[in-house]
Amino acid sequence: MIERKTLKDIANDLKLSISTVSKSLSDSYEISESTKKIVKEYAEKHNYVPNKVARTLKTGKTNTIGVIVFNISNTFISQILEGIHKGSQDEKYDIIIMQSRDSIQLEKHAIEVLSMRGIDGLLISPVAFNSNYQQLKDLQDSGIPVVLFDRVNHDLQTHKVGVENEISAYEATEHLLNSGRKNILHITGKNIGVAEDRLLGFKKCLKDHGLDFDPNLYLECDYSKHDEIEDSIICKLNYLKKTGNMVNAIFGATDDITTLTLGVLAGMNIKVPEEISVIGFSNIRIPNSLNPSLSTVVQPTEEIGLVAFSKLIELVQSKYPVEEFETIELKTKLIPRKSSTL
User: Would you say 157 and 298 are in contact if contact means Cβ atoms under 8 Å apart?
Assistant: First the structure.
């Protein structure tokens, strides 16, 4: 069995006061660098583990951050969580992750559970525009700061970290238009926090190229019924084919939609890109392994997570309440591949 030293043991062994040892381990400016070095090396060598319960009672902080995402298995989300994890390691915070499964009720439950767990702050990618607004506002008012990431179309006044959605959608649409594809189906998620800006970018690009937006070439998929997304795409394409308005390009506004679209088209024996070109937001790690390789708008996922975490820690460590917030929009990268290039 490994013997673990207590704070008192380290103080006795090094002939120092408990206060000096505690401040050394907390990297206090009151203690010399040489003393801190001796204490930290001794503590590490003897497997010292801080008593988090005692520290919480003393400081009122748990050094724990709550994170709510819509789906941990989503590649895009898992990459953001990697960034949050890196930030938490650097700042020595624990994280508790919960899923909303794109359900407003499950999101509400997750906020309640994390609040009861005594978190110092919350990172959340909201299910929908203004979902659980009052609950998040109450959390802020109680002294627990909240930062939004990815789906930042929400009225909560706080730091928000996402990407340049409108510009990115404009560039992806323009890529299709410049490839000679003008009959473009735009597929997005219903009422999710990135849909509006990406639709704006899509419409603006069409207008700038002298084309009207056709509501028939627009599909909203219900993310709360994830298993039905594929069926929705199939039904839409069959309807367009039946009415003689078949598209020659598809722009997917989310990671799931973009990658699912390739499978749908393959199942319908539609050739990509010969009959229909495909491009969209996607952060899958193996786009070149798909057949054909998938053209994508790649988002800086780890950076989103890291920046969101750092902004939350700023709030946690600041004098509360804070009244000035910023919305950070990171740049994306358009990578054309065979799915959109003849």
Answer: no
Q: Which of 25, 19, 29 is nearest to 11 (CA)?
A: 19
Residue 319 carries which DSSP code? P
3 state DSSP class of 139: helix
| Mean pLDDT confidence for 317-325 | 82
Q: How far is CA 201 from CA 171, 172, 206, in A?
A: 8, 9, 9
Average pLDDT, the chain: 90
pLDDT classification of 23: cutoffs 50, 70, 90: confident
Answer whether 0.90 is exceeded by the pTM: no
- Of 305, 320, 327, 311, nearest to 154 by C-alpha is 327
**312 CB-near residues (< 8 Å, 6+ apart):** 65, 121, 122, 123, 145, 146, 147, 159
- Integer Cα distance of 59 and 52 in angstroms: 10
Q: Taken in order 128, 131, 133, 135, is the CA torsion positive or negative?
A: negative
